[in-house]
Amino acid sequence: MKRRKFLKYSVTMVAAAACSTSFADNRQPYALGLQLYTIRDALSKDVKGTLKKISEYGYREVEIYGYDGKFYGYDPSDFKTLLNDLNLKSPSGHFDLNKFFTPGSGNEELVRYTDLCISGAEKLGQTYIVWPWLDPSMRDAESFKKLIDQLNLIGERITAAGLKFAYHNHNFEFVDHDGLMLYDLLLQRTDPAIVRLELDLYWASYMKQDLTELFRKNPGRFELWHLKDRDRKDPDLHTFMGNGDIDFQAILPLAHAAGVRHMYVEQGNNYIPNDMACVQKSAKYVKEYLLKG
Q1: Do residues 183 and 173 make contact, with C-beta atoms less than 8 angstroms apart?
Q2: pLDDT digits (tens, 9 = 90+) for 122-165
Q3: Cα gap 162→281, rounded to integer Å
Q4: What is the topology classification, in CATH, of domain 33-289?
């Protein structure tokens, strides 16, 4: 090889190696997780086979949704065995706490269901119980203030049991109500020691939130994240990771300041061609560009 060509080749290879090293260093040290609501259709047909596939795709953590004393038809201890056999863990779950909240009513049913959730989470080996949703009829400021009282109540109960409690956002918490934003109320009126936050990055981006400022003012409160990409043509639609317009490579370095412990891929709609194909594509992208856990 002539000297000029050799030098050109050497420079190219060094540059490529440097880029590769820089790229690897930019990935964050978290296990690849999946919110199982993403594959609800596949799970409804074959729980074990579906979980086996997502394990093969590289997912190592799953966040469950729903609980009635069983997880997808399995007793908690049996479901834990199934996950263990597939090299999966479930650090957190979306439980149906919202179904037991009615502003102005008593909290006996909510407390009773909370205790059921604590039992199920303990048997499954989970750390977090998450409040996942709020009915649209209860999204006014006064109802939300009453919700916050309940969040503190059950957060204290869950914490006393040795677990953690978190609240999951959507878009409505970031809507301006005559200068008042419900998410600000949530941050101000909940006790950080008993109410953590699961931040849905799709909805935060959709509502144009300044994440750097949010984490600066509230460091360490956002222990769970949802990684959900946004369709480039229709912002109301989701898409598989890397196919949308949210710049996750810019967001992920903020995870340490936010206090993140676990991240979950999620996609709630727009499955092209189907849910399992989407989570497989998401896993490939996230492992290649975002996470190295």
Answers
A1: yes
A2: 999 999 999 999 999 999 999 999 999 999 999 999 999 999 99
A3: 36
A4: TIM Barrel (3.20.20)
Query: Cα–Cα distance between 38 and 170 in angstroms, integer?
Result: 16
The packing angle between helices 76-85 and 47-57, to 10°, is 40
Quickly list DSSP for 68-109: SSSBTTB-HHHHHHHHHHTT-EEEEEE-SGGGG--TTS-SHH
Q: Where are the domains of the chain?
A: 33-289
> What is d(CA 16, CA 218) in angstroms, rounded to the nearest whole number?
39
- Strand ranges in 236-285 using DSSP code E only, listed in sequence order: 238-239, 262-265
Q: Of 109, 103, 194, 107, which Cα lies nearest the Cα of 157?
A: 194
Token couple for 224: 């769970």
Predicted model pTM: 0.91
Tokens of 8: 């050109």
Prior bond to 103 cis, omega within 30?
A: no
CA distances to 16, 95, 170 from 64, in Å: 41, 8, 18
H or E element in which residue 65 lies:
strand 61-65
